[in-house]
Automatic annotation (TrEMBL):
This protein's name: Uncharacterized protein
Organism domain of life: Bacteria
């Protein structure tokens, strides 16, 4: 379901798994994520469980319509 079809932005996303399939997660239940090596990440859900996925942080950002920022060091 795309954001055009679900205007509240709380639809589900499928986070892929290395063994096929994956985890179906409601966007509003994602509390955060971090890289887990070069081939995936760990997504933290508000309900408590950690979700290990083959999706990278940039891919998860796209799933969540997040904006990327550029940091500059002076």
């Amino acid at each position: 379901m795309s954001n055009e079809l679900n205007q509240n932005g709380d639809d589900f996303i499928l986070l892929p798994a290395s063994m096929g399939g994956g985890a179906l997660v409601r966007r509003s239940q994602i509390a955060g994520a971090r890289a887990n090596g070069p081939d995936g990440s760990i997504v933290y859900a508000m309900s408590g469980p950690s979700i290990y996925t083959t999706a990278t942080i940039p891919q998860i950002g796209k799933y969540l319509n997040a904006e990327a920022v550029e940091l500059r060091r002076d």
